[in-house]
Amino acid sequence: MSDPRALPGGWKETLYGKADLEASYRELASCEHFFAEGLCGYIRSLQLQFRDAWHHFDRAARMGEAVEDDIPTLIQKFLLEIYRFENALVETPVTLEPSLLETRVPLASAGVFDEYPEVERVIRLRMFCEAKVLLHLGECERAADIYDALIRKGACSTPEQLAGFYLDLAACQQGLGELDLVDRSLENCELAVAAIDGALEAARQSASLYAFYRFLGETAKADGWRGFLLHLRCPSETKALFVGRAQRLLQRCLQHSRLVSF
Q1: What is the SS3 assignment for 67?
Q2: Exposure winner among 46, 101, 110, 146, fewest CB in 10 A?
Q3: 134, 138, 128, 69: which is closest to 104 by C-alpha?
C-alpha cells in the first residue's frame, strides 16, 4: 500500500526548482491529502491570492483533524501554521500579536533528531517567526539576538535560510541605527542568495534585496538584484509576480519608515 502522505512525484522540483507555481498547483490539487491542500494555499499566498489561500488553509486544517498525530504529521501541521502566518503577514500590515505564534511544535525525544532531522528545521522556523514578529513590533534588539543565534547554527542551515536570517538581521540593524552592520549583513545575504539551488527561493530573496536597496536609496544595487531576478530560469509570470511582491514589500517598509520583511 502506498504511503497516504505521498505527494505527486516531481512536485518539489516543479515548485522549488523551476518556480512554476501554476504547474505545481495543478499537480498538488489532484492529491487528496491535508498537506497537499495546505501547499496549494502556500502557492496561492505566494501569488498574492489571499482569499484562495485562506480557503485552502482552512480546508487543510479540517482534513488534518482526521489524521493521526505522529511526528511526520505534526511537522506537516506545523509547517501549515507557518504558511498561514506568512499569508497573514503579507496580506495586510495588521498589528501583530504573539498569539500568531501559538503553534504546536513536535516534542522531540533523544532519538527523534536522528530519525527525523526535519524537527530541527521546525525549531529554527519557530525561532525565525518569533523574530519576525518582534521585528514588525519594532523590538529590533530582541529580534536581532534571535537572528544572531540562528546564524551561529549556520552549519545546520541551507543557503536560503541563511539568506533570510541575514536579510532580517539587516532590517533589525537598520532599525537600531547600526548602518555599518546593515551593509555587512546584506553582503552576507547576497553571498547566500548566490549559493541557492532553486529558482523559487532565489526569486523570493532577490526580490527582497531589490526592495531593501530601493528603500535604502541604493539604486544601482536595487537594479542589479531586479536584473538577477529577471534572468532566473523560471516562467515570466513568476518573475513578474516577485517584482510585484518586491513593490509590496517596499510599500510596507515605507509605511513603517524602516526595513521590515515578509
Answers
A1: coil
A2: 110
A3: 69
CB-side neighbour CA atoms (13 Å) of 171 = 35
Which of 226, 216, 214, 210 lies closest to 173 in space, CA to CA?
A: 216
pLDDT at 103: 47
Q: Quick one: how far is CA 150 from the chain centroid?
A: 15
Quote the CA–CA distance of 71 and 67 in Å, as a whole number: 12
> How many residues can be counted in the chain?
262
User: Rounded distance, CA 21 to CA 230, Å?
Assistant: 16
Question: What's the pLDDT at 159?
Answer: 94
Closest CA to 259 of 223, 228, 218: 218
CA-wise closest residue to 97 among 52, 74, 129, 56: 129
- Tell me, what's the pLDDT at 74? 84
Instruction: Write the Ramachandran bin of 198: left for phi over 0, alpha for psi from -120 to 50, otherwise beta.
Output: left
More confident residue, 247 or 72: 247
d(CA 48, CA 113): 35
Nearest to 25 by CA among 39, 13, 46: 39
Average pLDDT over residues 101-116: 52
Q: State the Cα–Cα distance between residues 253 and 260, nearest whole angstrom.
A: 6
CA-CA distance, 202 to 195, in Å (whole number)? 9
Q: How confident is the model at residue 5 (pLDDT cuts 50, 70, 90)?
A: low
Within 10 angstroms of residue 98's Cβ, the number of other Cβ atoms is 10
Which three cell numbers mark 85?
A: 502566518
